[in-house]
Amino acid sequence: MLIAHVLREKGALVHTASADITLEEAARELDRKGVGALVVLAENGAIAGVVSERDLVREVSRRGANCLSAPVKTVMSKDVVTARPSETIDEGLARMTDRRIRHLPVIDDGRLVGIVSIGDLVKHRIAAVEAEAAAMQAYIATH
């Protein structure tokens, strides 16, 4: 199964933010949207980074609550790992595991077309395995 299939089912909505909003604003946006990460966009619309719940927790742990007035650009992950819609779920999962990340912005022809979380990919992988098992059981039952 491809990442494109995951996006087709979950939708292409990507929650984004400016690099200049504060960490407190980012935390509120994450909570309001019920997501674990925001894609940070540069003024030209290019991906500048990703800020996640994990980034916020680490910064508060290191610097205390006063850090919440700092801009997102000071803590966001700038070396953004992305995926293409044509990649398989297993390729996405392997990249996430290798890089120890939980979110992959999806890029197609240089455009941001979606984002997938490790939970999205695991959910689809489990569904595929369950479908394979059911097909095998049905085959065995008829032969």
Please, could you describe this protein's structure?
There is one protein chain. With about 140 residues, this protein is of the alpha+beta class. The protein has a single domain, classed as Roll (CBS-domain), CATH 3.10.580. Helices cover about 45% and strands about 20% of the residues. The protein contains 5 helices and 5 strands. The strands form 2 sheets. Strands 1-2-3 form a 3-stranded mixed beta sheet. The chain has a two-stranded antiparallel sheet with strand order 4-5.
Write the layout of secondary structure elements.
Layout: H1 3-10, E1 16-18, H2 23-33, E2 37-41, E3 47-52, H3 53-63, H4 89-99, E4 103-108, E5 111-117, H5 118-142
Helix pairs in contact: 4-5
CATH H-level superfamily title: CBS-domain
Oligomeric state of the chains in view: single chain
Can you list the strand order of the major beta sheet? 1-2-3
Q: What is the alpha-carbon Rg in Å?
A: 18 Å
The CATH topology name reads CBS-domain
Specify the CATH class. Answer: Alpha Beta
Number of distinct helices: 5
Query: How far is the N terminus from the C terminus?
Result: 28 Å
Q: What's the β-strand tally? A: 5
Anisotropy-based shape = elongated
How confident overall, as mean pLDDT? 93
- Provide the low-confidence segments as ranges: none
Number of domains: 1
Question: Secondary-structure element sequence?
Answer: HEHEEHHEEH
Question: What proportion of the residues form beta strands (DSSP E)?
Answer: 15-25%
Helix content: 40-55%
